[in-house]
Amino acid sequence: MSFMAEQFYKEFFEEALNQIREELGNEKEFRLWYNLNYVGETDDSITVTVQSDVMWKLMNKNGIVEKIQQKINEFTGTEIKLTPAPRSAKKEKSREKKSTPVDTSIMGVPETEFFNGNPPPPPPEVEKKRTRNKGDENRFSRAMSGLQSMIDERSKIEGGNPQSNANQEDVDKEYAEFLRQAQKGVYSEEEPPSQHPQLREDYTFENFIPDNNLMLAYNTAKRAAEDPGSNEYNPILFYGGVGLGKTHLMQAIGNEIYARNPKAKICYISAESFTNEFTSSLSNKTTEKFKKKYRNLDVLLLDDIQFLEKKEATQEELFHTFNAIYDRKGQLVFTSDRSLKEIQGFTDRLRTRFGRGLDYDLQLPDFETRCAILMRKINGHGKEIPKDVIEYIAQSIQSNIRDLESCALKVMAYCDLSGQPLSLDVVRDMLKDRIDDKESAGAVTVDAIQQAVSKYFGIKIQDITGKTKTKQFVFPRHIAIYLSRKLLREYSLKDIGREFGGKDHTTIMNSINKIDAQIKTNPAVAAVVRQLEKEAYNYI
C-alpha cells in the first residue's frame, strides 16, 4: 500500500467534515472534536493531522473517528480508515524557543510519554503499597478527558489563531500542573469515604417502609437515584408535616447516588443554612466562591424550602443555582412542610421551577405500616417486644413517624435498664406522658373539632361553617380550620374547605396562616388553641 500520487480522497474527506458541521450545528464543538487536516492517502486510508495523541484517543473513544470514516465510506463505496500523522519534532522545538522553559516532567518522565498513553510510574514507596487496578484506569481516563480544553488552547496558539487570548507560558504552566494533579488522581491512595459526610447513614431506601400512600413517592425517589438528572424525575418536591419521612427519602436519594458514584458532587443543606451562607458571602464579598460551590453540583438536596418565603435575594440566587444544575443534568430534590400552593412569598419564576417536576404529599403511614416500622426499629436493636405492645403504640401514635420511633426507643431503654418483662399495662404507664388516652381511643374528626370550638365560644356549628364575616364568628372559624389542618394531615385544603361550607383552598390557607401568626405572637391565642386541641377528643 503506497501513497497515491493524486489526492483522490481529499475531496471526500472535506465533504464529510462539511456535512458533519451542518448536522452538528455547533461551531465550537465542531472545532474541538473535528480539528483534522488532510495530509495524504493510500489505497485504503487517509492520513490526517491531529492535535495530540490524547485527543486522537478521545476522538476514537467518543466515536468521532468512526463517524468521519462512515461518511467517507458512503461517498467512496469502499472501506477507508483515518490514521494520524506523526507529530512534528520541528514544531515542538520551535514552540519551546517561544516560551519560557517549563518543567513538564512527572517523576522524571517526559510529558510526551504521558501523552503517548504511558502514565508515569509511581514513586517506589507507592509502588510497594499498591498496584494500579481497574479503578485506577478509570481515574486515568477521567483525568485524560479533562485535558480537552487545554489541548484546544494549545492548538490555537500553535496554529497562530488571532482569536486566542491565551498566553503560551500560562497555558504550559497550567498544562504541567494538570498533569501533576492527574497523576495524583491515578495513583492516590486516598479513596472516597464510604459514607457521604453530610448524609445520615441510616437514611437509605432499605430502611424506609412505604405504605400504599407513599409507594409512588418511594418509587420515584429510587428511579431518580438510579438515573439522576433525568427530566422525568427532576426536580422532586416532598412535602408534609414533621416526622413523615421527607428528609429520609431525600437523603436516601443522595446516599444511593453516592454509593453508585462517589465522585458525584452532592450537597445536602437546609434552606436556612443556605440562606445564612449566602448572606455571609455577601458580607464577606465571596459570592463568586458561593456560586461556584453550588452551581457546579451534581446533586442538590435542599431541605425546608418554606424558610425562603419573602427572602427575595436568596430566592434570586437559588433561581440561578437551580438553572445551572438543571441545565447540567444534575438532580434537584426539595422538601417543604406544605405544598407550593400553600407557600406564600415565592417569586413566580422560582415557583415555576419548583413546579416543573414531581411533588408528593407525604402522609402518616397506615396502621399496618406503623407496626412494621416499629418492628424493624426494635428488631434492629436485637429486642423482642410482645405484639400487643407494638400494636398499642402503633394505634396510639398517629402524629408522625418521629414520635413513633421515639416511643420505641423508650420501650427498648426500659428493657435494657429494668430487666422486667414488658406488658401492655407497663407500657401504658411508661408512655402516659407521650400518649393521651383520649387520643388513643380513636382519631379526631372535623366534626369533633367543630363541636369543641362551637361549645368553647358559645356559637352554633352553622356559624363556624357559614359565611358570616363578623368578628364573633370569624375568629372561631379560623381556629377550627387551623386545628383541622393540624390534626388531620390526611385532609387536603380542598377537603377541609368542603367541611367548612365549600370554601376554596385560598380561604382555608389564609385562616391557617392567620392563626399560625397569632400563636407565635399572642400567648393567649396559643393557650386557647392548645386547650381546644385537647377538648376535640372529647367529641369523638
Topology:
Layout lengths: L9 H15 L2 H7 L3 E5 L3 E5 L3 H9 L2 H13 L4 E4 L4 H10 L12 H5 L8 H6 L4 H12 L2 H11 L9 H20 L27 H12 L9 E4 L6 H15 L5 E5 H13 L3 H9 L3 E5 L8 H16 L3 E6 L11 H7 L3 E4 L5 H13 L7 H10 L4 H18 L5 H7 L6 H4 L5 H12 L3 H5 L5 H17 L5 H7 L5 H17 L1 H13 L5
Parallel strand pairs: 2-3, 4-7, 4-8, 5-6, 6-7
Antiparallel strand pairs: 1-2
Description:
With 540 residues, this protein is an alpha/beta fold. It is built from 27 helices and 8 strands. It has a 5-stranded parallel sheet, with helices on both faces. The protein has a 3-stranded mixed sheet with strand order 1-2-3, covered by helices on one side. A hairpin with a 3-residue loop joins strand 1 (37-41) and strand 2 (45-49). The chain is elongated, with a radius of gyration of 33 Å. The chain starts with 9 loop residues before the first helix and ends in a 5-residue tail after the last helix.
- Sum up the overall morphology in one term: elongated
Number of helices, counting only DSSP H or I runs of 4 residues or more: 27
Taking the sheet with the most strands, its summary is: 5 strands, parallel
Strand numbers in spatial order across the main sheet: 5-6-7-4-8
Radius of gyration: 33 Å
Distance between the termini: 96 Å
User: Roughly how much helix do the residues carry, as a percent range?
Assistant: 55-70%
Alpha-beta content class: alpha/beta
The whole-number mean of residue pLDDT values reads 78
DSSP summary, beta strand count: 8
Low-pLDDT residue spans: 1-5, 89-143, 182-189, 437-442
